[in-house]
Automatic annotation (TrEMBL):
It holds the Pfam family Mit_KHE1. The keyword Transmembrane applies. The chain crosses the membrane at residues 145-174. PANTHER family: K+-H+ EXCHANGE-LIKE PROTEIN, TRANSMEMBRANE PROTEIN. The keyword Transmembrane helix applies. GO terms for biological process: potassium ion transport; proton transmembrane transport. It comes from Rhamnella rubrinervis. InterPro entries: Mit_KHE1. This is Uncharacterized protein. The lineage of its organism: Eukaryota, Viridiplantae, Streptophyta, Embryophyta, Tracheophyta. GO terms for cellular component: mitochondrial inner membrane. Keywords: Membrane, Transmembrane, Transmembrane helix.
Length: 273
């Protein structure tokens, strides 16, 4: 699976990193994840040769599916009901999640290559350096947050005695899952953009619009796992909406429409400090 990354500055030193997977590619990992506790136990108990990381992935997929089903049930709750209010609270909490975390979570374990789209005026080395930085930073931050969330999980069980849904427990459970996914995404992205750290040269394909790094290892040319695509269209959209305090919301909406990005996530980059 190849993921398409769109990278561009939104305000000052704030850059947007967003992902839109190619429509023809579907992530089939959810279809193989266990749907019941019995199925989950069967998979874990029979996977003696698998690593602890693989078993943790199965647990995370199982918890993710359960949370998705619960969230969809809240979405369908009648207006004004208690479940509908819980859904509103959940939306507010999700709005507090940093956009970089959402971006890193989108890099799944099935991604084996990235196509990086960026404004044609930017230097390709700077774009790669920024991608490596956000990936390396993610491995540090989300590992720390993951262990912190795991530590807090047992403490939230004390709220189970209340005659209300244990919201702190489910929120910390979600944060545990989210930080785990962001950590794995960081490691995967770092692996992809650091692929072929040997002496590199650059070749151009499809005219001057697409650049693919070629690395030389003992005289043998190796194609990198990333494809760099400077975009004149993205450059024009940036100039069209450039203001003193960053890109205008209209320009961001246009970019999101053209490159199939989530507008709210991109706006978070603009508002971040």
């Amino acid at each position: 699976m190849r993921a398409r990354l769109v990278v561009f500055p939104v305000r000052g030193r704030n850059w947007c990193f967003s992902t839109s997977l190619q429509p023809s590619v579907s992530d089939s990992s959810s279809s193989h994840s266990p749907s019941t506790f019995k199925h989950l136990w069967s998979i874990i108990s029979t996977s003696h040769g698998k690593s602890s990381t693989s078993k943790a992935e199965v647990l995370v997929d199982f918890a993710s599916n359960k949370m998705d089903k619960g969230w969809k049930a809240l979405e369908k709750a009648p207006e004004g009901s208690f479940k509908n209010k819980l859904h509103g609270l959940g939306l507010w909490l999700l709005s507090r999640v940093k956009p970089s975390e959402i971006f890193l979570k989108s890099i799944s374990k099935d991604v084996n290559g990235v196509e990086v789209i960026y404004p044609s005026s930017l230097n390709a080395r700077l774009v790669r350096r920024r991608l490596r930085h956000i990936a390396m930073r993610g491995t540090i931050i989300h590992k720390k947050y993951f262990y912190g969330s795991v530590t807090l999980l047992p403490l939230t069980t004390v709220f189970a005695v209340l005659p209300l849904p244990n919201i702190p427990f489910f929120w910390i459970l979600f944060r545990t899952y989210s930080n785990w996914r962001a950590l794995k995404g960081s490691e995967k992205l770092l692996q992809l953009v650091s692929d072929g750290s040997q002496t590199s040269s650059s070749t151009t394909i499809n005219g001057d619009e697409t650049q693919r790094d070629v690395f030389v290892n003992n005289g043998e040319k190796l194609l990198s796992s990333w494809v760099l695509k400077p975009s004149k269209e993205l450059e024009e959209l940036l100039h069209r909406g450039d203001e003193e305090d960053g890109l205008s919301k209209t320009a961001i909406s246009d970019i999101c429409r053209v490159f199939d990005l989530e507008t709210n996530d991109v706006l978070k980059y603009r508002a971040s400090t």
